[in-house]
Write a structure and sequence with these properties.
mainly alpha; 0% strand; 83% helix; single chain
């Protein structure tokens, strides 16, 4: 028999998982900014775009999972 999670417990677990997406996205973008400062702007720009894509995926997951409506 499986234990069911309450909505609060489910939200807390989802926050932990999505928080990792946020840190990875920001970390990749920060590394891209570092690469731009060092001098390889094209590879740095591509890393910033990759980080932005990860953050957009984070946004889509949040809206889809919790039905956030404006």
């Amino acid at each position: 028999m499986k234990k069911r999670l309450t909505p609060t417990e489910e939200f807390e677990i989802m926050k932990l998982v999505l928080d990792k997406f946020l840190w990875v996205g920001i970390g990749i973008m920060a590394f891209g900014l570092y690469k731009i400062f060092v001098g390889t702007s094209l590879s740095g720009f591509s890393l910033i775009v990759t980080g932005a894509i990860i953050l957009v995926i984070f946004l889509i997951l949040m809206v889809k999972e919790y039905e956030i409506i404006k």
